Amino acid sequence: MADDISRFLEEDIGDGDITTNAVIGDQKAVGAVKAGSACTVAGLAEAEEVFSDMGLRVKILAKDGSTVEPGTVVMRVEGSAKAMLTSERLALNFIMLMSGIATATDTLVKRARAVNPNIRIAGTRKTTPGFRRYEKKAIILGGGDPHRFRLDDQILIKDNHLKMVGSVTEAVRRAKRFSFSKKVEVEAETLAQAEEAAKAGADSILLDNMSPEKVAEAYSIIKAVHSHITVEVSGGIRPENIAQYAKNADVISVGYITHSAPAADFSMDIEEARGQ
Amino acid sequence: MADDISRFLEEDIGDGDITTNAVIGDQKAVGAVKAGSACTVAGLAEAEEVFSDMGLRVKILAKDGSTVEPGTVVMRVEGSAKAMLTSERLALNFIMLMSGIATATDTLVKRARAVNPNIRIAGTRKTTPGFRRYEKKAIILGGGDPHRFRLDDQILIKDNHLKMVGSVTEAVRRAKRFSFSKKVEVEAETLAQAEEAAKAGADSILLDNMSPEKVAEAYSIIKAVHSHITVEVSGGIRPENIAQYAKNADVISVGYITHSAPAADFSMDIEEARGQ
Amino acid sequence: MADDISRFLEEDIGDGDITTNAVIGDQKAVGAVKAGSACTVAGLAEAEEVFSDMGLRVKILAKDGSTVEPGTVVMRVEGSAKAMLTSERLALNFIMLMSGIATATDTLVKRARAVNPNIRIAGTRKTTPGFRRYEKKAIILGGGDPHRFRLDDQILIKDNHLKMVGSVTEAVRRAKRFSFSKKVEVEAETLAQAEEAAKAGADSILLDNMSPEKVAEAYSIIKAVHSHITVEVSGGIRPENIAQYAKNADVISVGYITHSAPAADFSMDIEEARGQ
Amino acid sequence: MADDISRFLEEDIGDGDITTNAVIGDQKAVGAVKAGSACTVAGLAEAEEVFSDMGLRVKILAKDGSTVEPGTVVMRVEGSAKAMLTSERLALNFIMLMSGIATATDTLVKRARAVNPNIRIAGTRKTTPGFRRYEKKAIILGGGDPHRFRLDDQILIKDNHLKMVGSVTEAVRRAKRFSFSKKVEVEAETLAQAEEAAKAGADSILLDNMSPEKVAEAYSIIKAVHSHITVEVSGGIRPENIAQYAKNADVISVGYITHSAPAADFSMDIEEARGQ
Amino acid sequence: MADDISRFLEEDIGDGDITTNAVIGDQKAVGAVKAGSACTVAGLAEAEEVFSDMGLRVKILAKDGSTVEPGTVVMRVEGSAKAMLTSERLALNFIMLMSGIATATDTLVKRARAVNPNIRIAGTRKTTPGFRRYEKKAIILGGGDPHRFRLDDQILIKDNHLKMVGSVTEAVRRAKRFSFSKKVEVEAETLAQAEEAAKAGADSILLDNMSPEKVAEAYSIIKAVHSHITVEVSGGIRPENIAQYAKNADVISVGYITHSAPAADFSMDIEEARGQ
Amino acid sequence: MADDISRFLEEDIGDGDITTNAVIGDQKAVGAVKAGSACTVAGLAEAEEVFSDMGLRVKILAKDGSTVEPGTVVMRVEGSAKAMLTSERLALNFIMLMSGIATATDTLVKRARAVNPNIRIAGTRKTTPGFRRYEKKAIILGGGDPHRFRLDDQILIKDNHLKMVGSVTEAVRRAKRFSFSKKVEVEAETLAQAEEAAKAGADSILLDNMSPEKVAEAYSIIKAVHSHITVEVSGGIRPENIAQYAKNADVISVGYITHSAPAADFSMDIEEARGQ
Question: Across the C/F interface, how many CB contacts are shorter than 8 Å?
Fold first, then answer.
């Protein structure tokens, strides 16, 4: 993380915060990071690291992953006013973006678990290049499952792979020969594909872009082959319709929590420290 | 950009795309990147670089910055099926995220220019750490102005700076002494501050969180001091209310186009190349 | 790989091959890389990249993974004598070390498959820091399975983990809750542990440091719980005793093929190119 | 070293030790690194740095370069169980591989010094790419001399150089003109070459692949020209025959101590820390 | 800065200070850095960082930017003799080179301000590749202005740009459209160009290679258009003639203070620490 | 070199050449790099690489190391006007600084060789941090010898080392024990030290800060011990007095050619390419 943060600081600062260098002296300051709206907060650990790297003392006042109300002060920072003003933006960007993701995830988790308490809500690889580890962490803080961080995490045979191979059974056979230590998941767009994948020995099956009814049917077919096969459902699932899918799935994966969740609103008020 | 892309590929791929390595042979393929919804497209140059770095031939079929309809094929890729499947996600992530930003910017630009044809819509530094240059580029492709990339681009004295210095006039004086080659902008929350900044010699004044009426008043006061001072307006401006602000501003800056714009929808269909 | 190779060249060359720079002019040369002993050759692709990066033309005359006799010329290189002499050592180091590993692996694979044609011989993480990807590749070229490249590849609960958790069942439960996309393997030192792990839902069980008889017994116990559980055997297995273990294992993993396999013998003869 | 270690940790860990993260809590532990066989131990300093970088407290109980018996605990580590389990493998890989090299070197040094107390045993550049500095250090800990780390350390004119230049005398002349601060060594395969190199002003002469008798003859010829010329002997020298060479050499260099020495056996036992 | 310093140390040290490693034991030492000639000292902060990174204790005895007499001890260092000898050269190189620049700048500042107390002396981008930030800092310590660090700091339309565009007015128009946050400066070689640039709205005008008389005339013309336009003068200005230019300029920029200023003379005396 | 150049370009350009981006279109241009004063030219290879990396075609019209007259066009560049303007400064900085060093070296070489045709003029480690390899190369192009690039090149026992060890003989003994492949040089400030070093077996002796007469005396004493010992002379030697030292030295080393040589004068004229 330290490497990332120094790279991110450099991206934001360049050769120096010329405003702060020009107008601020050696004053000490106290800064308060405050939520502007209700949200599941995330990114506090990252913001703390940003400020600590700048030599500031940080007190975290809310737990990453907890829910906060508008106006809540989630962090207090103390030390050089220059350092604080120079690093404020990066710290806030971490909190705003990660809290946005955590909040969107939390909403889905709550709606889905109301129907199926054992279900997992998972992310996808539709993340911002270079920022995935923080977006995946925000999903976890929102109660979700990160799913694959990288293409070497698990074998997941998708429609484009199947078009190339021609046969679900052959694709699964190749995958199982390739490695004994990785799980094999197959994306199925039809009931027939789902059944074929289950029989070929897939560890998990991803039902993509099916209606809730079709998902229910596929779920029964798969579990009949082997009760231990994991059933994942994906494609156009939003808070509005997640309850319809949740009963017949072990995992629901959703791209929009990383690529389209609006940021949460946070700001920092800085005041000169008195009597120090 | 080359450095970023190899870093981003590594983030997504890790030690290898084990699915593709396990199930795909040395086939050739053709891939088509298609828009799923109407948008201002961006990120095609980045996607092209991704695919080219993987040894694929790319034909771009839509211009970055142009508007595309749902179903439009914006890019066609040809070459090794393995390379294509391995790099598909990163290429799509560039296009989806950058097109989302370009689309949100374009909407604002059109609404504001209907009222004031000379106005600029600008971004902020509320961007994803490590991905700013692409987000700023997407703003430009959407017709906007990137504003500061980094803290060394321009002097911008904000409320937190003013709290430390105590006086607008003194802050401007320090800023102008610091550098003869950088513009000095001052954030004003009141009419008095705006006027003081103008008289102190600020090159630009940022009116923050004012009502449209107050902006109109501030605009007159500032331009009366010096007609060449740039007036920027910011704070809670969205497509719904931008027309009310646009008449009395040279620049309107908006954070949500980078931190909260939903991604555009793009996918890639890959088919085996025949007759090659 | 390109990054590694430039780093490795720098390690070997420093600020320049002062011998070559001092005594060699702009001559052209032809170099032949020759095996000094029979072996399963590996590292030719890496050696080719080394020489190509130096601007030399390379013809590979043996296939990585094939068996070669003493005296076989496996590669011919052509171009600047300076470039060839400067990069010779790194190219040879790749071939010598990787061929040593491939040869040791191949020997084990042949002996084990004589008994059990479906068995896999796998490596471990007992590799040279910084060189693992090449050592794992050499295992694959020798007919083996790389096993985990990294600690995030698969969950493998070892004796030290079990000491901390206290219970096999609880450890497996935690592991399965942690991730739905990773396999869970448990190291068992007793029959009771093996059975407990199988019943708790482990995907694979590693029998560590057991006699062939005990392995046979454990194998039956595990397969009785679930026929699909993978049985891996490890601990002091060498060419001499591998046949005794091979019948009752799906995978045999061996550390010495990476940490103690002697290098194969290769050298390069360089001659001035005439008539060019 | 710090850079290497963080790179090596990343190679081994990837995005996280998922086993440890899944099953271990915030327990404290004590770990003991134990030798499995008699050896000259090396790599303790590197292992200490690995563990320290992970925030663990380390007590080293044997001196790098000393001889240890089977069962000796060479290091004790204390702190977070998670950190210990995550970094155990890299620390052990350093100790196992470096101790293997130190042990092989020590054996040669002892046998050669029994005959010639002033002789040096030196390594070669036949090392693992990226790990040379640790392999050279292990040679030194085993009582040997590292010889060239890199091609810019010393001029060493080998057979391939001589084929290009055509004349020993001319090669030495060019080398001495090139630099006044580097020693010039010449590899000789015949007595005539050895004598020519000595007369041309070489600082050292490397007798390659000669029988012990021929080495004795060459040694006399060289020392007759200048008593201060260093005589190095190389080529197929092993513990079995080193005594025959040792009398007529200032330095004996041996490739197998880095490329083929078997690793020493070390393991780590971790137990939960009580009463802390 | 930390990154630079470790890179610079590596450049100077390579694989180790073999002299110090060979001949020095674990002694403690005290070192005194002394000026050999009168100068404006700079680089002490960098030298301190070098020594601190090596684990040494540093006491700075002169202020960066102050004037020192020959023989002045500007810094005292204490700790490991090995560390001190290994890092001495880099620390001295910082001080010698930066003090040379600060001294040359200070001389110009004093001569110019005798004529015009408000004038700024600025550097150029004629700096040593990779060392610019330190050279610019030395200019500031000598009382000067750094001018552009990089091409993205400010728009500066030079003769080569004007040749391409064809018209000063058009070039300024394009520049102002490009960005609202950057100043626009134009290089003028004639009075007509200067006037055209002023009228087109340039923020600053650089008079290049004009005689003092022509500068005076241009200055009047420009200030008549707008009193707030900054007038910069450049081209062949040295201590001998700066007074002639200083009256009619806001800024004088000079390349030789970075590319041709002789280094100041500093050395370090190291003595064994007694009684510690 | 490629790494350096992309780092140097980034230092100069930052996020983009905003002037060129703002005012220049897709024109083609031709640029001519011209000498402003007579000098020994160097840095053309580096400038060529800079321009080539930007996609420009380069024709080199003078040989690095040759002498050029004022007005000589040393290089012609062709291609995108944008690329040319963006990279012009870095290319010129290489040529100006390296030619300054080559010119200063050449002057010394000519004066010293008039007296002693076999003498070498050598540089020191008093170079600009991060730019040493280019400064050393410029010395070589000026006819000089680079001397140590790094502290691991050769053992050079200086006054500060001797203060720590206490005895010249003991220091040489330790140095020779440390390594058989590195030369050992000793800095002597008195005749007695010079003689002691020679007798102790030093390969070279550096006479520091002695008068020409004392150098002559030391030279005789040293050569009487061993005619093959290299005598290097250093300390305050300039073009004015070098002839007095040159007769009694094998090498004269001079710091000012890197730390204080004024840059040579070069500029680039760019014109729009017609008829292409």
Answer: 3
Q: Which helix (H) or strand (E) holds A262?
A: none
Q: Of C28, C82, C110, C126, which is the active-site residue?
A: C126
Q: Nearest C-alpha of chain E: how many angstroms from D271?
A: 35
Q: Is the Cβ–Cβ distance between A233 and A252 less than 8 Å?
A: yes
Q: Which residues of E touch D149 (CB under 8 A)?
A: 15
Contact assessment for residue C255 and residue D92, using Cβ atoms and an 8 Å cutoff: no
Element (H, E) at B20: helix B18-23
Q: Which of D10, D15, D54 to mutate to test the interface with A (most CBs of A within 10 A)?
A: D15
What is the edge-to-edge ordering of all strands in the sheet holding E266-272? Answer: E57-60, E73-80, E28-35, E266-272
CB-CB neighbors (< 8 A) of F14 in chain A = 14-15
**B133 vs F contacts (CB less than 8 Å):** 15
Q: Partners for C (CB, 8 Å, 3+ pairs)?
A: A, B, D, E, F
pLDDT tens-place values along chain E, 276 residues long: 678 999 999 999 998 999 999 999 999 999 999 999 999 999 999 999 999 999 999 999 999 999 999 999 999 999 999 999 999 999 999 999 999 999 999 999 999 999 999 999 999 999 999 999 999 999 999 999 999 999 999 999 999 999 999 999 999 999 999 988 999 999 999 999 999 999 999 999 999 999 999 999 999 999 999 888 999 999 989 999 999 999 999 999 999 999 999 999 999 999 877 754
Could you read off the pLDDT of F14-44 as tens digits, one per residue? Answer: 989 999 999 999 999 999 999 999 999 999 9
CA F115 to chain centroid: 22
Q: How far apart are CA B257 and CA D151, in angstroms?
A: 55
Phi-psi sector, D266: left (phi>0), alpha (psi -120 to 50), beta: beta
The shortest C-alpha distance from E238 to chain D (Å) reads: 40
Closest partner CB to E24 (pick from F27, F164, F269): F164
Segment B208-238, tens digit of pLDDT: 999 999 999 999 999 999 888 999 999 989 9
- Contact status, residue E109 vs residue E241, Cβ threshold 8 Å: no
Q: Which residue of B has its CA nearest to C3?
A: B6
Among B206, B200, B192, B208, smallest CA distance to B226 is for B200
d(CA E189, CA F149): 44
- Quote ipTM for the complex: 0.96
- The 3-state DSSP composition of chain D as helix, strand, coil percent (nearest 5) reads 45, 20, 35
Closest residue, chain F, to C18 (C-alpha)? F153
SS3 content of chain A, % helix, strand, coil (to 5): 45, 20, 35
Decide if F229 contacts F202 (C-beta within 8 A). Answer: yes
Residues of E with CB under 8 A from a CB of D: 15
Active site residues of E: 126
Q: How many angstroms separate the CA atoms of B148 and B159, rounded?
A: 17
Residue C3's pLDDT band, with cuts at 50, 70 and 90, is confident
Q: What is the pLDDT of residues C104-116, one digit of tens each?
A: 999 999 999 999 9
Question: Is E259:F95 a contact under the CB 8 Å cutoff?
Answer: no
Q: Residues near A142 by Cβ (< 8 Å), separated by ≥ 6?
A: A40, A42, A65, A101, A102, A103, A104, A105, A106, A109, A257
Least CB–CB distance from C154: residue in A182, A201, A203: A182
Cα angle for residues A218, A221, A223 (degrees, 5° grid):
105
Asked if E153 and B185 come within 8 Å (Cβ–Cβ), the reply is no
* Cβ–Cβ below 8 Å for B230 and E180: yes
Token code pair at residue A69: 């109300």
Residues on chain F touching C15 (C-beta within 8 angstroms): 133, 149-150
